[in-house]
Automatic annotation (TrEMBL):
Annotated region described as Disordered, given as residue ranges: 882-906
Species of origin: Methanolobus profundi
Gene3D superfamilies to which the protein is assigned, alphabetical: DNA polymerase family B, C-terminal domain, DNA Polymerase, chain B, domain 1, Helix hairpin bin, Palm domain of DNA polymerase, Ribonuclease H-like superfamily/Ribonuclease H
Protein name: DNA polymerase
Domain of life: Archaea
Molecular-function GO terms, alphabetical: DNA binding; DNA-directed DNA polymerase activity; nucleotide binding
Xref: PANTHER family: DNA POLYMERASE CATALYTIC SUBUNIT (PTHR10322), DNA POLYMERASE DELTA CATALYTIC SUBUNIT (PTHR10322:SF23)
Gene Ontology terms describing biological process: DNA-templated DNA replication
EC id: 2.7.7.7
Family: Belongs to the DNA polymerase type-B family.
Lineage: Archaea, Methanobacteriati, Methanobacteriota, Stenosarchaea group, Methanomicrobia
Amino acid sequence: MNFQILDADYIGTHDGPVVRLFGRAEGGESVCCFVPGFEPYFYLNAEGELDKLSTMLRERFDVIKKVDIVPKFEPVGYQVSKKPMLKVTTMEPRNVPEIRDDVLTLPGVKEVYETDILFRNRFLIDKDLHGMGWVTATPSSNEPVSEGRIYCDSVFTADSLEEIEKLSIAPLKYLAFDIECLPIGGSMPVPETSPVIMVSMSFSPAYNGHETVVLVAKKVEGIGEDVECFDSEAQMLSRFFEIFQEYDADVISGYNINDFDVPYIADRVNILTDSGENVRSSVGRDGRLLSYRKIGNRTMVSIPGRVVVDALPLIRSQYSLKRYTLRNVAKELLDSEKLDVAPSEMEEYWNDSGERILKFIDYARRDSELAMELILKLRLLDKHIAISQVSGSILQEVVDGGQTSMVDNLLLREYGRADRVIPPKPNDELVAMRNRSSEGLKGGEVLEPKRGLLEDVVILDYKSLYPTIMMAHNLCYTTVVEQDRPDGDTIKPPSGGEFVSAGVSKGIMPSILESLLQRRTETKRKMKATSDETEHRVLDATQLALKILLNSFYGYSGYTRARLYSLALANAVTSFGRNNILDTRALINGSISKVILRDDSAYFTEELSSIDPNDEVVSLSVVYGDTDSVFVQCASKKDVSLDGLGLVGSKIAATVSDSLPDPMELEFESIARRALFIAKKRYAIWVFERSGDGWEDGIKVKGMETVRRDWCGLTSKTLNRVLELVLKEGNVESAVQHVRSVVDGVRNIDVRTDSAIIEDLTMTRMFSKKATSYKNKQPHLTVAEKIEERTGTPPPVGERIPFVIVAGKDLFVNRAEDPEYVRENNIPIDVDYYIKKQLLPPVERILGVFGVDMANLDYDSKQKGLFDFSDKPQTNAVEFKKKEVDVQPQQQTSTDKKSQSSLFDF
DNA sequence: TGCGCAACCTAA
DNA sequence: TTAGTTAGGTTGCGCA
């Protein structure tokens, strides 16, 4: 039987541990496959006589099943040869963590390795199986080991198990749910007092013909057949769990279920059970009851055999939004409206027996529908499924965890193959030491931008810079020269240290990266070849997953909580990177310097015997660069077409790439017809990218206020318009006019008549830590406190808090207010703050390039005297701009070229 | 007025 | 038993 591995765990039996693989088969059946016979173990590094130690271990610990002497490399450093270590096999997986500390106290024992690998991961790694990978299993005649009912269509013990190559994804079943609770007096409901009154469920594919089902804990007349009514909350919840198990979903979803719905239901079940009701909350494929664990601030939910996917954290990490309420997310990402009953009105709606209760039911239904839509329409899981397949981690681990677990997984696999052991995760003490001992990790190089408006800038970037550096220079934990001296070449990074060359010993990490890169290239090739849309999507997710993994290794190496942490390695990578971008700039400015365009080809001067009058000579100069990118300004006497600039870009890319070791590669990315550099990491460009045979244009903004969530929408919108006018139309005058009209509008805001404007004046900031650990007061903290005063509950840490600044004499931070409250109470906002602090400074940073200043913009300012106010600000601005431009020689040419175009056409 | 600091968010 | 990294700009505030 073939099935895709969704989840894995193990159970203990009197014959030792038995692994359970849960999955979904090609034909659509859910599968639970038992695999006996795999044993837990760890490694031990000791000095002295290993035979004696081995005997001592077996005598001392009766949970040790056997001890073998195996040759292994230590985790870090180039080593000429392996050394004998002990492989300790225990009876039960839990024995490994139980005895690891005691084992360390035995004489001669130096270190223990791989003592904290979850048994299911150990199994998957050793058997070369992967999360979301397909396996073919031969069912055994043996009865499946059973600890009670398994909620799967097919349950069997496997004689043999092997991974198979298969691109498709099994027909997964999704269930999204959402609960409604009855708040007492309009405040936040708590399980101790507020019952669950409705449960809304959405299914994909449908459940008995229903896409949604709503369960209601009271009798209601006039409902449809997809609404079920119950006499009590307990009966309703029992039905929920019954449907849950009957439907047998692979993916359990909802919005904020991890932090709210799941704990709430679990708590309610306990409360109801304590009061004598009978609710069995069976949800696992092994019948496990619904439960959750609090780890620090976060709630972890796991359901054996299924994957719990809360849409909220996924959306938080994948989309940059001002707010992550379901209402806002639905509006921004699905363009659909969430329906709501205000908490204060809920009781009224609930107690109604007519239209309002029906409305309430429909609203509830909508919430689980939206969660399902988010998962399916935004394809939130595709990337995670691909990462699971590529890294080998179980899907739940990929969804919940970060990059560490995927890198761990890949490293464990390859270290194992190369007979190297891996240390356990560092304890807090070691982490503290690593953090303390910091000579520090230096990062990427950011080139000083040439500020102002530039034209014809070719943008190039390094393809996977850090991974390719690691490959090119064989940088790895396993190649760093520490204990043994190599007999052969070494590589000395600019940061210091020494690594053996690939000729001496190829590093494990470079090998992993190479195979990931190769797979990515292959996947992209397949993508181009296929015409099947589903296949294309799967391949696209796969290549993206490969890219994410490629880029995770560097960060891991400099992460103090990583199993393998090496400052020498991480610093080697970035130091090569810094040198590389500086060398690239020198090469382009220096020996390349000019490119000549002739007959749709690009040449260097030395490639041509003479310069023809029809040749276009393009002079190059690097005007900006950040870590792995270079922006090259192209100056020419004549206008150069996009295709011409494309040729220049490709010529530069090829030339620079040729000068670099494989597989480092500079790629031509795009062309900015106009580019405005404000500061490092802050710029806007009118960019043209290749699209089929032609070019596709757009405006790209980096780092400026338009893309920052702690600035108000009014600023973003105004700035975007200004950038568009300046970059696309070259029309500074219109930009100035636009800003003036906006400023005018703000001056005349009357909150009482125009409460919609509040939306545009709202800023948000993340409530990033407990209120007590803030050293300084913050505007969003002020609002958080006010909300707590008003409702009794503060917003949770991690939430983005919206606020506006209201009029008054007090300190800025104290005048932050909840926008909702401002709307309801018609509180006047601080018009001056919005003009002087929100609108004008960012605008001035842009228009200042053309000589426009505050006085030109805020012409209606009541404090005219503060600024050097001019009679004819608009003319002033433009004349200044013209002069500015004329002063710069690079732009002299562009002025000539474009003197008839809109830039100076006024 | 200038400076240092905390806090935020972004680029890569 | 959580969590890849550093570089960099901007703001508000308290203080010399």
